[in-house]
Every structure is written in C-alpha cells, then in structure tokens.
Amino acid sequence: MSANPLGVIRQDVQSMHAYAIQDSVGLIKLDAMENPFALPPALQAELGARLGAVAIHRYPGARIDDLKQALARYVDLPAGCDLMLGNGSDELISLLAMGCDLPGATILAPLPGFVMYGMSAQLQGLKFVGVPLTADFELDEPAMLAAMREHRPAITYIAYPNNPTANLWNAEAIRRLIAEAAGFGGLVVMDEAYQPFSSHSWLDEIRANPAENAHVLLMRTLSKFGLAGVRIGYMIGAQALVHEVDKLRPPYNVSVLNAECALFALEHADVFAQQAAQIREQRAVLIDALDRVPGVTPFPSDANMVLVRVPDAQRCFDGLKAQGILVKNVSKMHPLLAQCLRLTVGTPSENAQLIRALKTSL
After folding, report:
1. Cα separations (Å) of 355 from 292, 300, 321, 331, 346?
2. pTM above 0.70, yes or no
3. Under a CB-based contact definition with an 8 Å cutoff, are residues 280 and 311 in contact?
4. 247 secondary structure, DSSP code
5. What average pLDDT does range 102-123 have in this prediction?
6. Labelling 263: which of 111, 215, 335, 360 has CA 20 to 30 A away?
7. Which residues, listed in sequence order, are joined to residue 305 by a DSSP beta bridge?
C-alpha cells in the first residue's frame, strides 16, 4: 500500500480554512468592496487595443519600471522613499512575513481586521497577536501598547481605514504606537487599501515627519481604485527598508498585461477620481437611508463599505441573497461584530435596491 501523500503537508495547513470567495453569479455584488463602475465604452476599446499590442511572448521588463515611476508621480513619492510592486496587497503582506521570519518573531494587529495579517503569520510559522478594538471599534491604545511592550512585534499592522469596520482611527494614538515600535525596532505597516475614499492619508504624515516614520511602510492597492481584477499592490517606505523587502519578490510577479492596465488607468486617473467621488457621495446617501431603517445601526465609514448591525445577521443575509443581493456576513468573524453585515457601496440603483431588500428582509 502507498503512503498518504498528505503526510508531507503541514498539519496546521491542513487544519486551516481557505480564504472563502462567495459565488456571485446572477447577484448584485455588494460583498467585496469593489468599484461598481465599469470603464466607459470608449476607454474599454482603447484599453483593448493597448493590451492587444503588448508583447505577451516576452517576460515583463522595462514596462514594470514605467509603472513604478508612474505610481511614484501619482502619489508624489516623498524624498528618501522608494516604491515596490506586489501582486495585490496580499503578496506584499506575505513577503513582509517572510522577511521578518526571525526566531520568536511576532506580528500584531487590532481585531477585527483584515484576515490576511493573521493568515500570513500562520503560513510563515510566526506568532500572531490580535488586540481587540473597543466596543465602538476604536483602537484600544492601552491594550495595544501593553501588547507591543510584551511581544515586541516585528510588524504592527494599522489599517487606515480599517476592514471590516470602515473607520479611521485617532491619529494621535497611531503616532504613539509608531513611537513605541521605534523604541524596539519594529516595523509599522499602514494599510491604506481604501485610500480613494478616505478623508486622510498617512502619506501626508510621512512627508511632514520623515524621521518619526522612518520605520513605517505604507501599503496601497489599485483594487479599490477600480482595478480589483488587475491585482496590483504597492508599498512605500524608506529606501533601505523597501530595498530589503523587494529582494523577496518573485521575479516577474506583475504581468505585462496587469502593468499595462495599471498604466492606462493612471493615465486616466481623472475618470477614476470621478468614480471615487460618486462612491463617497453614495456612501453618505446609503448611510442616511440605513439610519432611517428601524432595527439597523450603520457605523461611520471612510471607505467604500458600510458596517451595519441588524437584529439577525444570518436571516438578513439570507433574505438579501434571496432577493438577488450579495453582501458579507461578518457576524461570526469576531465577537465585536455580532449581528453585523458589511455592505459595499454600489451604484445609486444598486444602493436603492439594497435598501428596499433590506427592509423586506427585516
């Protein structure tokens, strides 16, 4: 008899759950914080012609450098900083865990938060410490400082704004956490995945106070910009730091097609800026409408999603899905999220349908 080939797969991996992606066929998709607006037809045709001319028989080359330079101009890269690309933010998170895999190393983040912080730590064999937010989803600064002093984490993640709670945390508290990490040489990663919809960016802080943020890495993605299907993430930080992390990046991790899509989008950044403005406007409309639905409590948002608490999250989720609307049931992710759903801000029509279906489900 042959031996079980699963024996060579780590036991902790076998006990893990894979990242779940909901089937959205035939549904209004409001579960993954995607930009709901497609490219205008004229730009679709122009992009198609561009992609048709790409040399897909060659490995990615200088065009990747063109994209890095375009992103550096787009963000007005601060002096002394560099920028690296990832296949989405997920790859950057994995590379950071790999780079900081020293004996006894720890990764720390507030909870509830983005699941990939903890998953990347587990896959790399690192300890993960989650520090609960307060009941109103604010940073518990004393608890964060205590955990940092106890565990001296190699990486502390601060999502700005946070997923799935969608709120920005107090800047003064974040400055104190960054100062604490500096004391023991830890990195702080500011995750700005939802920057197009946020009222603040930590990049302004890095630009204004470079010395205090010399150990801070800022991570963004073009997914929420409007290119979720293209898978481009990027990370900014001090040149010496970025140089070391970039050594871990697989060769050709960004395809020529993805790079060309991203370059095209940056050339038409005004179109995507208009879409982001519409989403911010619709977010206010949606929160106002949710606030007027009995039994629904929406929470403040600086992202393209709204967290709501309902009387029965599973019943409400099922009711919405039965009416053709897919949202994210986050009620079992963390005790603080009890009876909560996460709603992506959609188009005006999608948001109106969501409100009508929500009332019926309740």
Report:
1. 10, 17, 13, 19, 11
2. yes
3. no
4. T
5. 95
6. 215
7. 344
User: Quick one: fold of 5-42+270-357?
Assistant: Aspartate Aminotransferase, domain 1 (3.90.1150)
Among residues 196, 161, 199, the alpha carbon closest in space to that of 299 is found at 161
Spatial separation of the C-alpha atoms in residues 208 and 315, rounded to whole Å: 48
pLDDT tens per residue, range 74-99: 999 999 999 999 999 999 999 999 99
Residues 338 and 138: their CA atoms lie apart, in Å, by 16
Spans of all domains in the chain: 5-42+270-357, 55-267
Task: Kindly list the distances between the CA atom of residue 102 and the CA atoms of 155, 157, 254, 270, in Å, as whole numbers in the listed order.
Answer: 12, 18, 27, 43
**How far apart, in whole angstroms, are the C-alpha atoms of residue 272 and residue 227?**
10
Common-topology check for domains 5-42+270-357 and 55-267: no
- DSSP 3-state of 174: helix
> What would you report as the CA-atom Rg of the chain, rounded to the nearest whole angstrom?
21
pLDDT of res. 116: 94
> Which percentage of the chain shows pLDDT scores above 70?
100
Q: Once rounded to an integer, what is the mean pLDDT over residues 12-30?
A: 84
As a whole number of angstroms, the distance between CA 341 and CA 191 comes to 22
> Is the distance from CB of 316 to CB of 341 less than 8 angstroms?
yes
Note the pLDDT of residue 219.
98
Q: State how beta strands 28-29 and 325-326 pair.
A: parallel
d(CA 325, CA 354): 7
